[in-house]
Amino acid sequence: MISSSHFAIFCIILVSLFALQQYEIGNMEENLNASKIVVYLSPCVRKRCSFSLFKNCHCCRGKYHFCSKNIKVCEKECLRLNPPRPLP
Fold first, then answer.
1. Is residue 11 part of a domain?
2. What is the domain range of residue 64?
3. What is the annotated signal peptide range for this record?
4. Contact at 8 Å (CB) between 74 and 59?
5. Are 69 and 78 in contact (CB under 8 A)?
6. How does pLDDT run across 11-44, given as a tens digit for each residue?
7. SS3 of residue 66 by DSSP
8. Nearest to 63 by CA among 45, 50, 46, 82
9. Which of 21, 22, 63, 28 lies closest to 43 in space, CA to CA?
10. Which pTM value belongs to this model?
């Protein structure tokens, strides 16, 4: 048979393990949310211009093509021509 002091120690350990497990679950959720990395993928790629031998144009990746020497202009037009799909 278990003595009362052994039973008390067992109960303290059991309660401590439950509290530790609850803490780890909360900590794990925080770490999961903090580890979500957002990667920006430009809608434009560098390509060779039709009028040049160098890769100095930026063209849309999507269905509708547009090329520009300026990356900002390309991104703006590509997002207008090929809007990103909504996330599920």
1. yes
2. 44-81
3. 1-23
4. yes
5. no
6. 888 777 776 666 666 666 676 666 666 677 888 9
7. coil
8. 82
9. 63
10. 0.49
